[in-house]
Design a protein that fits this description.
The protein has eight helices and no strands. By secondary structure, it is mostly helical.
C-alpha cells in the first residue's frame, strides 16, 4: 500500500508540469490574440478614420467603443482571465479582481491621485460638464486598456515569471512589458497619439499605471487612476482640433456607454471571475 501511494504521488509530480506547459502556452496565445485583435479593431474603427477627433461622428464613436473596447477589451479580457484562472496560471485576485470593498477603497485612492495629477499637469479645463464628458469618453477605453495590458498581460506575465525570477523582479519585468505594449497600442489611434514621441511618453505613463496596479492589485482603482491620466491628452487634442465646444453640454450616448461598460465589468467580475477559481491558484502577492 505504501509503495502504491509513493508511486501515485510521484506520478502527480511528473504530470503536473506536463499539464502546466500546454496551459501556459494557451494562456499566452490567448493573451497575444486578445492584444492583436484589440489593436487592429482600434486602428480600423478609430485611428484609420480619426473617430475621436470628430465629436459629431457619434455613430462611429459608439461603434468603436462597443467593438474594440467593450466586446474585445472587456468581454475578451474576462474570458482570457477566466481561462487562465481555471487552469491555474493566474488567480482572479492576481488579475486585480478582489472583493468589492477592496475595490471601493482603491477607487477612492485612485481617483484622488489621478485628479491630483490632472491638476498638476495644468488642468486644461475646470468646466465640470467638459470634464464629465471627457471622463466618460476616455473611461470605456481606459477599462479596456487596464484589462488587456495589466489584468491580462501584466498579471499573467508576472505569474509565469515569478517561479524563476521571484516576486519583485517578475513584477518589474511584467510592468515594463505591460507599459510598452500600452504605448505601442496607441499607434492604432488618431493623431497626435500615434506619433513616436507620444507613444514613448505614453509608455512612461504606463509605468505610472503599472506601479498603481501592482501595488493595489485592483482593477477598479487602477481604472479610476488611469482614466485621469488620459483625459488631459484627449481634452488637449479636442481643443487643438477646434472641437472642444461640443463637449460643453452633456453628451448622453457617451455617458450611457460609460455606465454600460462599468456595469459589464462588474457583471463579469461577479458572475464569471468569482466562479472561476483555479484548483490550485498561484500564491497572490
Amino acid at each position: 500500500m505504501t509503495q502504491e501511494l509513493i508511486h501515485e504521488r510521484a506520478s502527480e509530480r511528473v504530470s503536473a508540469p506536463a499539464t502546466r506547459i500546454p496551459n501556459t502556452r494557451m494562456s499566452l496565445f490567448l493573451a497575444a490574440v486578445l492584444y492583436i485583435a484589440w489593436v487592429l479593431a482600434t486602428y480600423l474603427l478609430e485611428g484609420h478614420i480619426h473617430t475621436l477627433l470628430r465629436p459629431e461622428a457619434m455613430g462611429a464613436r459608439l461603434t468603436y467603443a462597443l467593438i474594440a473596447n467593450v466586446l474585445i477589451g472587456i468581454v475578451g479580457s474576462a474570458l482570457v482571465i477566466r481561462f487562465a484562472s481555471r487552469v491555474g496560471i493566474v488567480s482572479s485576485a492576481q488579475a486585480g479582481f478582489k472583493g468589492l470593498g477592496h475595490a471601493a477603497i482603491a477607487v477612492v485612492i485612485g481617483a484622488a491621485l489621478g485628479f491630483g495629477i490632472y491638476a498638476l499637469q495644468g488642468a486644461p479645463t475646470w468646466n465640470p460638464v467638459v470634464l464629465v464628458n471627457a471622463y466618460a469618453q476616455v473611461l470605456v477605453g481606459s477599462i479596456a486598456e487596464v484589462l488587456v495590458c495589466w489584468a491580462v498581460i501584466g498579471a499573467i506575465g508576472q505569474s509565469l515569471l515569478r517561479e524563476k525570477r521571484g516576486r519583485w523582479v517578475s513584477a518589474i519585468i511584467a510592468a515594463l512589458i505591460a507599459s510598452v505594449l500600452f504605448g505601442l497600442y496607441h499607434f492604432g489611434h488618431s493623431p497626435p497619439f500615434n506619433t513616436v514621441p507620444l507613444v514613448v511618453f505614453l509608455s512612461i505613463i504606463g509605468l505610472v499605471t503599472s506601479v498603481f496596479f501592482f501595488v493595489s492589485r485592483d482593477v477598479y482603482g487602477t481604472i479610476a487612476f488611469h482614466n485621469f491620466l488620459g483625459i488631459t491628452g484627449v481634452i488637449g487634442a479636442l481643443e487643438a482640433s477646434g472641437n472642444l465646444a461640443a463637449f460643453a453640454h452633456p453628451i448622453i450616448p457617451l455617458l450611457v456607454m460609460a455606465v454600460v461598460a462599468v456595469a459589464l465589468l462588474i457583471g463579469a467580475h461577479v458572475l464569471w471571475l468569482n466562479s472561476a477559481a483555479a484548483p490550485k491558484p498561484p500564491r497572490v502577492s
